Amino acid sequence: MDAPTTVEQMRAVAAILPGVMAFPSIGSMERSLAKLANDEPSDFISSEISPHELMGFPQVWADEQRWWERYGSAPAAPV
Q1: Structurally, how many domains does the chain consist of?
Q2: pLDDT value of position 46
Q3: Is the dihedral of CA 22, 24, 25, 31 positive or negative?
Q4: Is residue 1 situated within a structural domain?
Q5: pLDDT of residue 67
Q6: With contact defined as beta carbons under 8 Å apart, do 44 and 51 qualify?
Q7: Burial class (CB in 10 A: 0-12, 13-18, 19+), 61
Q8: Which domain holds residue 41?
């Protein structure tokens, strides 16, 4: 059997981590992580997101919003 793809791994993480589920959609999380992995230095997370912050919905949304404002167009806010 082949190793799981990155998308499958992200979906598995999203299923067990409530903070990850705060992304507006799995696709949004996939795009954000892919952009981070492919386009930006690995210090984005360590420099922009404190590991001591609780990663609940407001924080994850704020982090993703900041990402899109910095690197592209921002997604619509969740309703």
Answers
A1: 1
A2: 45
A3: negative
A4: no
A5: 74
A6: no
A7: middle
A8: 6-70
Domain assignment present for 79 = no
pLDDT at 31: 67
The 3 state secondary structure assigned to 12-58 is HHHHHCCCHHHCCCHHHHHHHHHHHHHHCCCHHHHHHCCCCCCCCHH
CB atoms under 10 Å from CB of 5, counted, come to 9
- Which amino acid, one-letter code, is at 29? M
Q: What is the mean pLDDT of each run of 10 residues along the chain (79 residues)?
A: 61 62 58 63 48 53 74 62
Is 78 contained in some domain?
no
Amino acid letter, 41 = P
